[in-house]
Structures are given as structure tokens and as C-alpha cells.
What does this fold into?
Amino acid sequence: MRSIRRFWPLIKELQTGLLLVTGLAGFLSAAPLAGNGLTLLALAGSLFLAISGSTVLNMAYDADIDAVMKRTCWRPLPRELVTVREATLLGAAMAALGVGWALLLAPLYGLIVFAGIFFDVAVYTVWLKRRTPYAVIIGGLAGGMPVLAGRTLAIGQIDLVGLLLALGVLLWIPTHIMTFAMRHFDDYQAAHVPTFPAAYGFYATRVVIAVSSLAAALVMGWAAAVIGAAVGLLAALGVLGLGLLGLAMLGIVRPSPQASFALFKYASLYMGVAMLVIAAAV
It folds into this structure.
């Protein structure tokens, strides 16, 4: 039990849980729950291992950054509760098991799961995160892979809806990450991690967030319409999207740390509920 407590924070359970929800929603957007329970469990298991493994590998690589930042210095690696070698081995093992399981379920599904890990770890974390504020785009690509993978497992191919759902997540990512970068601006500066607010200022960042929020809401609504969601579900998505856009606009008109934090929290709620609506659309 002590070992579990040491390693559990490495998977970032809230982030992993949200990505897992998108994967399950992608599957349920094309296949009903009835009769697909075992496949859904296999999807959940393989995605959990892959996403968690990717996150642990990122934590191992970024241990030096986490040690500098006030919001992350309490994590197991900076506190030396877990060694970088232990975290790397754990992350690699979980990622390999997740991809292997996914390939056994369906080769195309497995390739998409692998692509998510590759973009997240190799391209985003190792190559771009410490070099450019535009790394957030690659992070968005990785974030869109679980929902695309889930949809693909259900229908056996990549289709328009799957691409739209992945694009919706990609467009949502700036709202999630850039508000966080503004809230913890000093931390990122101390760790020498380039961010959009540092490169272009807070006002430009808030404008990008507003545009991105609107685009994400429109794309998610488009995906739901293509699926054939009922009018009530489309209306619910619209209301959720208006809330996202409203908070983003509030950040421009009346910027404050409280407004940025409210948008950050609502963005996670929006994505979670939007995915539940997508899953209910079939």
C-alpha cells in the first residue's frame, strides 16, 4: 500500500481520468453500451495503461522542472520518494502494456494509442516543451488521440466524427493549458519553460483562448450533429459552449486571476460533460 501511495501521484489521476472519459465517449459515440461491455472494459484498461504510462514518463523527464516550480515541488520525484529510474521503468512498462493490449484489440486502434504516446512524450515533452510556446499544439494532438482511438475501435476505421472529436479536444487544449500558464506564470519563468503568455503577453493569450474556446465549442457541436444527436443534446452542448466562451470573454474584458482560474476549472468540466453528451447521442 505504501508503494502505491508513492507512485499514484505520478499518473495525475484527474488528467488521466478526463482523457479516459474522452476515449470511452469516442467508443460510445458509435457503439451502444449494451452488448459491448467487455470491449469497453478492454478499451478502458488499455487506455488507462497507455495514458498513465505516458504521464509517468513525462514526469520522469520533467523531474528537474518540477523541483523548481512551487506548484510541483511536492511531487514524488522532487521529494525523492521515487527515483527517476523507477519512474521511467514504471512508465515504460505501463505504456508498453497499454499499446500491446490495444494492438491485440485492433491494430489501427493500437497504432493511434501509440501515436498519442509518441506525440506526448517524444515530440511534446522531450523535443518541444522546453523550446517553444507552440509545443501546446503538439500537446493538443496527443490529447485528441484517446477520443479518436475509442471511436476507431468501435467502427474499425478513422471517420469524420472521430477527426472532429479529436480536433475539438485539440482546440480545447489552449483554454486548459494557457489559463494554467497565466495562473502559474512565475513558476514557468523560474523553470525556463517557454509559454504563450511569456512570449506574447496576457492580453494576446486571452484572445487566443477566446477564439480557441469558440472553435472548440463549434467543432464539438458539429461532431454531435453528424452523429445525429437529438435537439436537446445539441442545445445542451450549445449552452456548455456559451459558458466556455462567456468566461473566456470575461477574461478579456475584466481580466483577473480569479477569472482565469474559473475558466480553467470550467474548461475541464466542459470537456467532461461534453463527452458525456457525445456518448449519449447514439
